[in-house]
Amino acid sequence: MTDWTQLPDLASRRLGGSVIEANDEFFAERENLIKPGDPEFRPHTFTNKGQEYDGWETRRRREEGHDWAVIRLGIPGKIHTVVVDTTHFKGNYPPHCAVEATTVDGYPATITTAWQPLIEKSPLTGHERHVFPVNGTQRHTHVRLNIYPDGGVARLRVHGTPVPDPQWLTDVPFDLAALANGGNVVECSDWFFSPPNNMLQLGESLRMSDGWETRRRRDEGNDWAVVRLATEAVPTVIEIDTTHYKGNAPGAVTVSAKHNDTWHPLLARTPLLPDTSHRFRVTTPTPTTHLRLDIHPDGGVARFRAYGRPTEAGMAVLTESWRAATA
Which residue among 132, 260, 313, 321 sits deepest, i.e. has the most Cβ atoms within 10 Å of its Cβ? Predict the structure, then answer.
């Protein structure tokens, strides 16, 4: 599953992203840039500043310069695709944009390090989603969206591969499947209603569309998803959450583990309840690189988590990936 749309949006509010600075947000707040969901248009929603748009909108510039906003990524990582969405901005969109990135430690309120270009100054059109490929090889923690000279942008999406800092994963159990830690769905039988990476998000599921849901099966098979873990590790607890899935939860589930190209059972076929968070202790812990979640026959899973510790080899891979992306 290499489609960029299946990579996490590293800047999303749902994954902990934040807009920490903007030089102007006169008409619409900067935080709208990273809201989950598509931009909405609500006609005749006028404030004392004018029509309120679902996005970030600056005042009309009457001097030289350009406007900008700085986003702290919720998940630092290597950036592969940036989406600059001007949906609903038709007469007030910026004619051009550029995107830069940088890496800093901690949580600075103002960025003072040098910025590296991700996207050179490029033309924009109104009411359009602009997709910019990025050949990201370095780990970044912040991006800066520059618009020329002013105007409105509905959403900024920063899709990429998480690169977790090994210092937060050493000697502690963590969620090996989480997007934030480098987990990712690499194969899946069906994601008709919502994509499988949804179930690897942080936090509680907000609604049915915030999990993974398949269409209704009319054959003898079942649906499944293969999750590549953050690194080789030993899972000890599996969590399968069906919150919000009340008439469409799977009837049962099985979990298999892969190591050295061989699959073996980790959790035998087990019934699931609707709208319930289930936790299962792994009785035969073993080194694993991938988990396969089989739902029987179909339905929705809000969250899938696999808690455990990296093996010595797995920790070495994490550390080397970190060094390569921060050199």
Answer: 321
